[in-house]
Structure formats: structure tokens, C-alpha cells
Amino acid sequence: MRLQDIQPKRKAVKNRKRIGRGPGSGWGKTAGKGHKGQKSRSGYSRKWGFEGGQMPLYRRVPKRGFTNAIFSIRYQVVNLDRIEGLEEKEITPEVLKAKGIIKKLSLPVKILSRGELTKPYIIHAHKFSQKAKEKIEAAGGKAVIIGG
User: Fold this and answer.
1) pLDDT digits (tens, 9 = 90+) for 81-120
2) How many whole angstroms separate alpha carbon 14 and alpha carbon 23?
3) Does residue 49 fall inside a structural domain?
4) How many angstroms from the chain centroid is the CA of residue 73?
5) Which pTM value belongs to this model?
6) Which residues span the domain enclosing 123?
7) For residue 132, with 0-12 CB atoms within 10 Å meaning exposed, 13-18 middle and 19 or more buried, which class applies?
8) Is 115 part of a structural domain of the chain?
């Protein structure tokens, strides 16, 4: 076997359909597009959601109520058990990002109370749960709120 002899597996590659190449091909005349109409013409493209002039579904369905979701603040949650193993005494979002505990520095960080602390850490975060704050201070550490 030589490099020039290598071929794809049988039936792995299908020949493309050559439309509009005469009646003998089976795809001549209208080339599989039917008769007349907008879809048979070249350059046809339909807008997203267009239903031929009929009122589209997204406009037929009633919209009710109000959602405040776009104004809600999404926190990156970090529990105390994730912080416990770190060597640093001062924990900031930058340290958490470097250790892979949080993904983005653009989102605020909230510390929750799962786990125990044995060392006194100075933890900088945007928000703390009440229990987390108590546990940090009980271990001799300090909970510092960023931007507040």
C-alpha cells in the first residue's frame, strides 16, 4: 500500500447532486424546486419566524406578566471548604480565579458557609452569608466586603 492508493471507505463519500443538467439526470427542468413561486427563484431567503404573511407564532401567543430576571445579580458561589486548603492568608477574587475556584472576575463573589475553617483567613468578597461571616470570625479571620 502506498500513500497515493489510500481511498475513503466504500459509500463513505457520496457524489453531490448535480441539478439542472437535463432530463436524463432526473433533476432537469425545475431542478427539484417545483413549479413557480418565490421558493423556486434564485436568491430566495426567508426571515426568521416568517410564516408566509400569516401572523407568526411568536406574535400570536399572548405575553403576560413581568420578569425582573435581567436586573438580578448572579453571584459566583464559593464555600468555605474550598478556601480551607489554600496557603494564602489573604483571599481575593484574583486568588480564587488563579486557583480555578471561580471562572470570571467580572461576576461578583459570594462566600457561603459549607465546611469549616481552621486557619485565620482575611477574605475579600462582594457578599457573605451570615453563617459564613460567623465561621470566618470564629476562626480568627476577617470578612471584608468589596465595594461596600
Assistant:
1) 999 888 889 999 999 999 999 999 999 999 999 999 999 9
2) 21
3) no
4) 17
5) 0.57
6) 74-145
7) buried
8) yes
Q: Which residues contact 22 (CB under 8 A, 6 or more apart)?
A: 28
In sequence order, what are the beta bridge partners of 143? 123
Residues in the chain: 148
Residue 86's domain is classified under what CATH number?
3.100.10.10
Write out the E strands in the chain: 76-79, 90-91, 109-112, 122-125, 127-128, 142-145
Q: Is 17 a domain residue? A: no
Q: Check residue 92 and report its DSSP letter.
A: -
Residues with Cβ within 8 Å of residue 78, at least 6 apart in sequence: 96, 101, 102, 109, 110, 111, 112, 125
Structural domains counted in the chain: 1
